[in-house]
Design goal:
0% strand, mainly alpha
């Protein structure tokens, strides 16, 4: 019998397994007596501690899972082993397996707040924010003082772009615990999403006071100060982030952008190359290298870097900027047809593209010899700029056109909108 028991529970002594079975049977036969249930809870607690702790460096998770699965069999009426199994799987990013354990646990104890929380967390991390919000709300009904639940609802609403709701829940997390750093960090990201850079930096500073050695907080401060046009301050935090973690790719990416803002192009290229050493497919690093090359007049190198960036899956805003820059750099290289194609691709990506991009299209059409098309584009861009009271965009476009026309010796018809602009009359 002992041999059979050991085969069934190879990580639990056969005598112990038999004792647990007998004690469990006694507890079920005498529900009015708490002693057996208390003893079982104590044994389970010790076995769980043994299952998840003090394991060898290699195969820790696998060994813990094997031990906990035995405990599920030994303690079929307890959700505790299933809860720990879900935690291990969540840490491993194996959310499907975690959800299977959680569903079994919830059949054992449907209102267990920890199981409900972990299930909602799995749903959030697998891209089901609506279901996650529902789960976290259920958890709050059972445990209303857990700031993590409010924080995670806020983060889920941020994912959905419902910023007012997100902010309300993140602030509820802070009301529950005014020193709860994750909520301040998520408020930082919330304001970053909206490009509200003062709000971003405000909450990032609070998060930094609570956790000064958090590299993500330092990166957020770097992003915030770049957004505020304070690249020197940004660099202080970005350097700190790389000192905390020398392999922190995102810090080098943003560092390159900060150096670009300071017109320190060689340092920007160097920072971007550091990012590429760690992440060869970083589109942002390649894009920053391209921008630096363009500012140095190395347009062919810039085009190569930007095309490389475009192959590395940039986000929509990144692709928009890449098409924009490619169009401009191809124009400088007299590749007018390709320049027009890239510029039009960028314009199609937004309902209201930047005015500078539209003016660029006009200049490219002029270079292609399409004077009528160029005049129509300039006329449209000027009307939109005047409607937006953005005369700076007109001034910038005139300066760029003046330089380009002078270099290329392009003729401009005296009756055209562009000629009037060059003569100083936006009317």
């Amino acid at each position: 019998m002992e041999r059979k028991s050991n085969e069934s529970y190879p990580l639990v002594d056969g005598v112990v397994a038999k004792f647990i079975g007998d004690l469990r049977a006694y507890a079920e036969a005498h529900p009015e007596s708490p002693d057996a249930r208390i003893a079982l809870d104590g044994i389970l607690d010790n076995l769980v501690r043994e299952a998840v702790g003090a394991m060898p460096a290699e195969g820790e998770a696998e060994l813990a899972i094997r031990r906990l699965e035995e405990l599920v069999t030994l303690f079929p009426k307890s959700p505790v082993p299933l809860l720990y199994l879900s935690k291990i799987c969540i840490d491993k990013k194996d959310h499907d397996t975690a959800l299977r354990y959680l569903e079994v646990g919830l059949t054992v104890e449907p209102d267990n707040p920890d199981l409900i929380f972990n299930r909602a967390l799995c749903l959030q991390e697998t891209g089901s924010p609506d279901e996650a919000i529902e789960g976290f709300r259920h958890h709050i009904e059972l445990r209303p003082d857990n700031p993590w639940a409010y924080n995670n609802i806020g983060d889920a609403y941020r994912t959905l772009g419902l910023y007012d709701r997100a902010e309300a829940y993140l602030k509820l997390a802070i009301q529950n615990d005014h020193r709860f750093g994750p909520a301040y960090y998520n408020l930082t990201m919330l304001y970053m999403d909206q490009q509200d850079w003062p709000g971003c930096v405000h909450y990032a500073k609070i998060a930094e006071r609570l956790d000064p050695f958090n590299k993500e907080v330092q990166l957020a401060l770097g992003d915030g100060y770049v957004g505020l046009g304070k690249p020197e301050l940004a660099l202080q935090h970005l350097v700190t982030a790389t000192l905390i973690d020398r392999s922190f790719v995102e810090a080098y990416e943003t560092m390159a952008a900060a150096y670009v803002s300071l017109s320190m192009y060689e340092l920007g290229i160097a920072a971007a190359h550091e990012a590429l050493k760690l992440k060869p497919d970083s589109w942002m690093a390649s894009a920053n290298i391209g921008y630096c090359y363009a500012k140095q007049g190395r347009y062919a190198d810039a085009i190569h870097a930007e095309r490389t960036a475009s192959r590395h899956n940039p986000d929509k805003e990144g692709m928009y900027k890449l098409y924009w820059d490619l169009g401009w750099n191809l124009l400088q290289m007299d590749e007018y047809a390709q320049a027009l194609e890239c510029t039009e691709q960028a314009i199609r990506m937004k309902e209201y593209p930047d005015l500078a991009l539209t003016f660029n299209k006009g200049l490219i059409l002029l270079a292609l010899g399409d004077a009528r098309g160029a005049d129509a584009v300039y006329d449209q861009a000027v009307k939109r700029a005047k409607a937006l009271d953005n005369y700076q965009a007109i001034a910038d476009a005139v300066r760029e056109a003046e330089n380009f026309i002078a270099r290329k010796g392009i003729h401009v018809d005296k009756a055209s909108t562009l000629f009037k602009l060059l003569e100083g009359s936006p009317e």
